[in-house]
Amino acid sequence: MAKSIEDFLVELDTNSKLMEAYKSDPVATAKKYGLSSEEVKIIADQDWDELTKRFDDTSKTIRVISY
């Protein structure tokens, strides 16, 4: 099963080594994590609006994304 960008962001919150790698090179870290090329492009383009849409589910806890 492929990992999703949602899984990646949750993992960033709990894995300090992944966060350090992300801070150093976000695109390479996302690729290494196994995200699809479409999801890597979201990170490369810093398309936070698209990312917010993926987390927009009122039945879940609200998440603040500030990467």
UniProtKB/TrEMBL annotation:
<dbReference type="InterPro" id="IPR036622">
    <property type="entry name" value="LigA_sf"/>
</dbReference>
<protein>
    <submittedName>
        <fullName>Uncharacterized protein</fullName>
    </submittedName>
</protein>
